[in-house]
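User: I'm writing a tutorial on reading structure tokens. Could you give me a worked example: one chain, its sequence, then its tokens, then a sentence or two explaining what the tokens reveal?
Assistant: Sure. Here is the example chain.
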Amino acid sequence: MDKIAYFSPLNPVRSGISDYSEDLLPYLKEYYEIDVFVPNGFEIENKIIKMNFNIKTHEEFPRLYAQKEYSSVVYHMGNNYHAHKEIYELMLQYPGIVVLHDFSLHHFYAAKTLENGNFKAYEDEMFYSHGNEGLLEVERFVKGEIPPIWETNSLQFPLNLRVLDTAAGVIVHSRFAQKLLHEIASYVPITVAPIPAPYIAEDIETVHRNKIDARNYLNLDPNKLIFSTLGFTNHTKRVDKILEALYDLKKEKFLEDFKFYIVGQVADNYPLEDKIRRLGLTNEVVITGFVDLQDFDRYIAASDICFNLRYPTQGENSASLLRIMGHGKPVITTDIGSFSEFPEDIVSKVSYGKEEKEDIVNCLRKLLDFGGFDLKNQRIIDFTRNKHTILKCVQEYNEFLNKIKMGELSNIYLPIKKVMCNYQKNSSSILINNFDRNINQFADSIFSLFKA
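And here are its predicted structure tokens:
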């Protein structure tokens, strides 16, 4: 059995990627012997992971890598700097398979550079990924002509080229991300492994039974109409627009007896409490604060309709969306990025422009006028079981890792970079200071031959 090194945030790092890895690892173990790497002194919260995997520290990895212990190295990379900073540094030194959970890494680099007072490093990264166009955008930002680039234009300036250049291969979870990455770095092998639903209900009776059990456990009214939005809540989750839509429907008396649960931590800079009071929804809206994964699933099971809105997008996927679908719940999401790939009869979609609130209102009307949800519940369950099982995800991992290992797929940039790095060691200080520029210009000329 091949042996792999596995790098990912894990709980108690509160991240969807932590939950994703903890769901995935027991299934991946059927194919590989796995060493799970964590920062020095880190205590894994999940007892199943602690008991069933070899746990090693980041400090141990260079020695084991040099000894050729592993057939593959897997790095999970996301946009949260504090969750991924050590993984990122190792990834650059020891190329492996990168599971890229966010197309854009602009937030990651902004935190890595600007939050640490290193403007030059931010400028260098923009040049590396986006050339002179990136430098001009930085200049506009510095002059105050545009807001922070990572907040408004991160899809055009995703700052992901250094990760792509270093990766032996890349796994993403949507055709949307694959297409965008291919346009940036066609020389990197990229595959799509469907984001998995860790739980899929057996049938409609299971959905009904879970709903009753969850409401009993959480002490929720068994007869109320319950809406929910789940996960860390900031302005990208569009909860302010959901609240406005619920207010309109309450005012029109279309909705009279309902609860809306905001499940998870709310960002400090997203003052929802004030908005809830101004709209007169204090009796209808509950902010739970952080909940563990078991209660997270219970709130999904207890809900009649869930929201999973997202704008602006970093090209990310949503693990919570697949959890919702696994429970067979109708869900309203934003018609953008990877979310647009889901069929209209499975996921209800709203725009992110001026009509966003009105779209939410109309979507809720349509779902609630439909009456009984059994038919829709069953379609959602069937689709999720057909397209998004953990087994399908793991099979795609296994196939891709094997192709990389056997040399059937390869990142043609890596040997070029190795030659350039060796050249750098013997070059003048002028060449060293302009290394990023030289290597990118050299690589561009090589890649143009492949495209000709």
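What the tokens reveal: The domain at 204-388 is CATH 3.40.50.2000 (Rossmann fold). The longest helix spans residues 119-142.
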